[in-house]
Amino acid sequence: MVQRYMSLPTLKRSQHSIIIFTLGVVLFLSVCCFAGLLVFDFYRNCDPLNAGLISNDDQLLPIYVMQTVGHLQGIPGLFIAGVFGAALSSLSVVLNATALVFLQDIVRGSFKVQLSERATNILVKSVIVVLGAVAMALIFVLEKLSGILSVATSVTAIAGGTTFGMFTLGMLVPWSNTKGALAGAVAGALMSGWVSFGSQAAIGAGRIGSHKLNVSVSDCLANYTIPEADYSNEADVFPLYRLSFHWITVIGVLSTLLVGTVVSFLTGPTVLKKLDAELISPVIHRFLPKECFPPRNANPDFTRDNTAQTFTHLLANSGDSPSDLGRY
């Protein structure tokens, strides 16, 4: 995402892109929350999971669509087409970007291999096919886990938490250096990955489960009994594995910041007097030495955009009148 912003020609366009992206994410999450509220209200007295109508929480929205607008011809198909279209578009972007990153950073960057155009096309397409096959194979793994949302959030939190931690380290820790950032990134990825995959392995083994709020089946057509949840066996599971998957990003960020700060300090911190204050968050500016800030011009006329006014100002200070400009 950062590379996309940096590819824009000006800072203003990058800022506008970030604003548009943020508004889009807020709108998307708002729609998701609203859809969740609709589903919750519709099934408030007849939980379809405990009633046996569905086998997984991921099926709540599809069954809601079928029971509310399923009688309208074309609407269920439109819903399925929208879901598959959104999934395939996102998947195609990820596969293409990953294949190009593999080509640019690993093949050309690490191994210094320069391929012909034909070999490059074959390599990129082969990587896409392999990644697609791996994605298809992971479908059978998802059946054993807690659901798509928790798995996707847990996996993306590994990269998201590490990346956010690195940028936060650079903005808030003035003495951070390259070694500290690298060590922090490795530590954050390992820590969040350990918690993420460990918790998913515990869920797949049936050692822990999702703690859910109380639901009702009083208005269901048939008589159902909600089984009592038993969480007594979870006491033997490692405490970090019992955390919600929403905390994995926080774990990655904190690990990156802590390790990155300590390693930067031990391996030779950046000299603060030679630091560019523009690279540090304004919150930290008050703690930086004066040498970090370039001297500001006291006269607003001395700018690159008003050369004529600047020249006139110089002549006025030297005792010449504006009418003498022709001499110069």
Short précis:
With 328 residues, the protein is mainly α.
Task: Tell me about this structure.
With 328 residues, the protein is mainly alpha-helical. It folds into three domains: 77-143; 147-284, no CATH class; 297-328, no CATH class. It is 58% helix and 0% strand. The protein contains nine helices and no strands. The two termini are 52 Å apart.
Task: Spell out the blueprint of helices and strands.
Blueprint: H1 2-6, H2 11-42, H3 60-69, H4 75-110, H5 117-142, H6 148-172, H7 178-204, H8 248-266, H9 307-317
Helix pairs in contact: 4-5, 6-7, 6-8, 7-8
Keywords: Cell membrane, Ion transport, Membrane, Sodium, Sodium transport, Transmembrane, Transmembrane helix, Transport
InterPro entries: Na/Glc_symporter_sf (IPR038377), Na/solute_symporter (IPR001734), Sodium:Solute_Symporter_SSF (IPR051163)
Main location: membrane
Key phrases:
328 residues; mainly alpha; 3 domains; single chain; 0% strand; globular
**Count of separate DSSP helical elements:** 9
Total individual domains: 3
Q: β content, as a range?
A: under 5%
How big is the Rg?
Answer: 29 Å
- Provide mean pLDDT, rounded: 84
Could you list the spans in which at least 5 consecutive residues all have pLDDT below 50?
298-328
Apparent shape: globular
What share of the residues lie within helices?
55-70%
Strand count, sense and barrel status of the largest sheet are: none
Helix and strand succession? HHHHHHHHH
CA-to-CA gap between the ends? 52 Å
Secondary structural class: mainly alpha
The number of E-state strands comes to 0
